[in-house]
Amino acid sequence: MSMLRHFTAEEVEGGLDYPRLIDALDAAFRSSGEAMPVRQTYDVGTADTPGHLLTMPAWDRGRTLGVKLVTVFPRNAARGIGAVSSLYVLLDGRTGQPTALVDGEALTNRRTAAASALASRYLSRRDSRTLLVVGTGHVASHLPEAHRAVRPIETVLVWGRTAQRAAALAARLREKGFSATPVSDLPAAVAEADIVSCATTSDAPLVHGRDLRPGTHLDLVGAFTPAMRECDDAAVLRARVFVDTRAGALAEAGDLLQPIAAGTWSADQVCGELHDLAGGQCKGRRDDDEITLFKSVGAALEDLTAAALLAGQAAAAGRPQREAAALADRSEAV
C-alpha cells in the first residue's frame, strides 16, 4: 500500500523550480496525444451562500493520475477567508491508490506561470529583456521569475489598478534581483515591453492592439470565463494566436470568444496549442516583427505534471535515507 504524502504551500514553492518545471511541461505537452476533459463546474451553493465546485482530472495511463478540486465561495470575504480554495490529489496510475495531497493554490500559481514561460520559449523574441506584468495578485507575482527562466529578462514594469499594490509587488521583485518599477501609464508601458503578461480578473480590455509594437509577445493568463477579457479585438486581430488547449480556450476564454461573437475573428485562426508547439507540429515565432499572443485558461495536464514532478523529486530525495536506515537495521541484526 502506498504512503500518502502531504505537500504544503512552502514545499511546493521550494520543490518546483521553474527551469525544471518548464522542461517537464514541455515534455508532457509534447508526448500527450490524449485530450483531457475540460474542467467541470457545479453549482453547490444556496440562495444565501453562492458556491461552486470545479473538478480538473488528468492522467498519464499506467503511470499516474490526479484531480484538482477547487471551490469558489464569493462571500467568504465577509468571513475573513479566501473565496477560492483548492487541493490536488495525486494517485498511482497502476493501482489507483492515492500517493499525495498537494496545496492546490501554490501548485496552480507555479504551473500557470510555468505554462506562460513555456509558451514564451516558442513565441517571444529570444532577446526579450523588458517584461510588463499587468496585475498584482499571486499569479502575477510568479510571472517574472518564470519568464526569466527562458528569456534574459532584466527590467520588469508592474501595473495594477491600485498604485500601492503595484509598488509593493515591484519592491518584492527587486528583492529577487529584478530591476522592477511600478508604472501608472499602461499604454506607454505596453509600447515599451517586449513581453506583456496579464494576470487579472478584468471583464474589460486592459491591453489594446493599437499600443502593441511589432515583435511583442502578449501573454494572457487571468481571464478564465467567456465574460472576462484582458485585451481588445484589435490585439487579437494583430497577432498570431496560440492557446494552451483549444478545447479549454474555445469554451472559456472571453478574449477569444468575444471577438468570435462579434464576427471580427474566427476560431479557425488559432495557430496552435501547446501540444503543437512542443511537438513541432506548428511553428512558433517566425520573425522578430510579428506580434504573438498566448491565451491560457489552465489545463489539468499542467497540474498533473507539476504534482508528479514534486512527488517524484521527494521520493528520490528520500530514497538514500531509507536505504541508509535499512542498512543500519541489517547491521544491527548481524
UniProtKB/TrEMBL annotation:
One of its GO terms (biological process) is carboxylic acid metabolic process. One of its GO terms (molecular function) is oxidoreductase activity. InterPro entries: NAD(P)-bd_dom_sf, ODC_Mu_crystall, ODC_N. One of its GO terms (cellular component) is cytoplasm. It comes from the Bacteria. PANTHER family: KETIMINE REDUCTASE MU-CRYSTALLIN. Belongs to the ornithine cyclodeaminase/mu-crystallin family. This is Ornithine cyclodeaminase family protein.
